[in-house]
Amino acid sequence: TLTERLNKTFRNLAGFGKLNEENIQPALREIRVALLEADVHFRVVKSFLENVKKRALGSEVLESVTPADQFVKVVRDELARTLGAEEPPPELRKNPAGPTRILLCGLQGAGKTTAAAKLAHLLGKSALVALDLKRPGAVEQLRVMAEKVQATFLPPADPSDVRLSARKALEEGRAFEHLIFDTAGRLQIDEELMEELVEVAGIVKPDEIVLVLDAMTGQEALNVAETFHKRVPLTALMLTKTDGDARGGAALSIRHVTGIPIKWIGTGERPDAIESFHPERFADRILG
Amino acid sequence: AVGRGLFDDAAAEQIEEALIEADIGPEIALRLVEDVREWVRSAGGGVTAETVREKIEMDIAEILRGSGSGRSEEIPPNGNHSSEQPRVTILVGVNGSGKTTTAAKLAAQAAARGSRVLLGAADTFRAAAIDQLRVWAERIGCEFVAQDQGADPAAVAFDAVQAGKSRGCDEVFIDTAGRLHTQTNLMAELEKVIRVLGKIKPPDHCFLTLDATTGRNGLQQITTFSRSLPVDGLIVTKLDGSARAGVVVEAVERLKIPVRYVGVGETVEDLMPFDPEAFARELVR
Ligand SMILES: Nc1nc2c(ncn2[C@@H]2O[C@H](COP(=O)(O)OP(=O)(O)OP(=O)(O)O)[C@@H](O)[C@H]2O)c(=O)[nH]1
Ligand SMILES: Nc1nc2c(ncn2[C@@H]2O[C@H](COP(=O)(O)OP(=O)(O)OP(=O)(O)O)[C@@H](O)[C@H]2O)c(=O)[nH]1
Ligand SMILES: [Mg+2]
Ligand SMILES: [Mg+2]
User: How far apart are CA A113 and CA A129, in angstroms?
Assistant: First the structure.
């Protein structure tokens, strides 16, 4: 385990008993590999370890723990802090004067359509809007899921026009407390589809724009999030498929660089498999 | 991006970071760079960064070739006469990795070559999964077999192969539900599908789809799926995105499972045979 390896690196070095500039280097290297293996972006790892080093060297050396344990605690606390542990848990941005509009976006297969149903299940009083007019069976998939969670289903007003369908859905959806918009998966490098997303956001004027991202996403997670964020102001991140064994380092990269709050995680395929994000728990997961 | 000029420590670090950024993993990245540094030393130094980069590309392509990746197998245009018909291919992989779309692509491309094709909808779990595959079958104009939502996937798979036989099909492609490799009961479900197929025709191919955006977890996925299922090929999907699927380098090296195809888009044309050199070039850029 990481702690065992760290115990080794500290044991082999002079000055055992105190964290110093010299003995911390091998320990930082161990953490670097652990974080890269956890899919944290390599630039974020660099910057993150700078913070860890400052805190570790500046910290009071406790008599009752080994340098390895103390070092791990510094890393873990810094992970949790970066993920939002010292801030109040992020809340849903509610609209004071009408339906709270939530727009979901993300790469193909990330879990958006399922997430739409999960949010409807969590929040209640929701209508689900089908704006994926491309993928075969996507509208039907959302319809079936809406039924499962007892949410109203708003089919596309025009199955060949996303913009018009978005506009019509706003009119149809006025009476609901939450209006959740599912969109087609898209590559952040697909200019045409990113432009479509910008226009849909302009029409819907969402209270929340949620990037739905697979927890197993690798180094590109940061690029994906930053690019989406540049085009539409993301207000939340939802990490899906956390019921797997992917460490989820993407969460750290995105939070560290963009500050976008992680509000929910998907923990399974069923509509009730959604939880709010816990920074400490996730810090443990990333560290492995 | 890797710069010009002589190969030095700065260039080495740049290359290592490029490899890590491509999801190749910190240990393989370090090893590849260390190996090439040794190669530069034994050459007496004075090598350009560009030459080093090409050397690493070759090393990676060699790893990818070593298992048979990139040798696109002969796909008989009008039926497989070297083995009993139909040829049966099953698609497996984690949720959202592109199984259904890839099954459609494989079916369409086989049909375009003149094969009589059947698509089997053995994802009986996910909402509208059967509808999704049915739409593809209609677009392609090929045979289609499905049962009710919630039916036993093994029964549907069996049904599909049986129909393939009786309808004189050359190829049967079976789509399955997404599942995480950590879900042991669902992995057991797939093992049962394979076992049941064994009663009529054991699959000629079991392709594992891997989303190119997947990070280091891809290694666990490939390891676990191939441990209990007869996975004989990987299909890297969504390679038209910005992710480069570097994780397959370690997977191929360790497990010797070849990459057969890459998915490069959402239409049936968007499936290409795997090209190790082109793939390696993208990893080191
Ligand atoms: N295990 C698990 N599976 C999930 C989770 N969220 C979604 N899925 C599954 O992931 C797959 C993809 O989910 P979708 O909701 O279709 O993804 P999407 O983003 O809408 O896909 P596109 O519309 O094609 O871009 C499905 O098999 C879902 O059941 C999760 O939290 N855990
Ligand atoms: N850009 C791109 N998108 C792809 C590719 N392959 C599949 N997709 C998209 O990825 C999403 C998921 O594809 P599916 O075929 O539904 O994936 P799946 O593995 O069958 O998903 P589940 O059955 O829910 O586990 C869809 O939006 C597809 O259009 C590809 O090569 N490139
Ligand atoms: Mg969808
Ligand atoms: Mg599918």
Answer: 10
Q: How close, in Å, is residue A14 to chain B by CA atoms?
A: 27
Considering CB atoms only, which of B134, B182, B238 is closest to A245? B182
Q: Is there a contact between A85 and A23 (Cβ–Cβ < 8 Å)?
A: no
Nearest to B23 among A137, A219, A243 (CB): A219
Residue B282: how many CA atoms within 13 Å on its side-chain side? 17
Report strand pairing: B259-263 vs B271-273. antiparallel
Identity of the residue numbered B185: N
Q: How many residues does chain B have?
A: 285
Burial classification of residue B182, based on how many CB atoms lie within 10 Å of its CB (0-12 exposed, 13-18 middle, 19 or more buried):
middle
Instruction: Please tell me the distance from the alpha carbon of residue B227 to that of residue B208, in angstroms, as a whole number.
Output: 12
Query: B203 in ligand 2 pocket by Cβ < 6 Å?
Result: no
- Contact B211/A109, CB-based, under 8 Å? yes
Cα angle A107-A109-A110, degrees, rounded to a multiple of 5: 65
β-pair partners for B207: B91, B233
Note down pLDDT in tens along chain A; length 288 residues: 787 788 777 776 555 567 788 888 999 999 999 999 999 999 999 999 999 999 988 777 666 777 788 888 999 999 999 999 999 999 999 999 999 999 999 999 999 999 999 999 999 999 999 999 999 999 999 999 999 999 999 999 999 999 999 999 999 999 999 999 999 999 999 999 999 999 999 999 999 999 999 999 999 999 999 999 999 999 999 999 999 999 999 999 999 999 999 999 999 999 999 999 999 999 999 998
A132 lines ligand 1 (CB under 6 A): yes
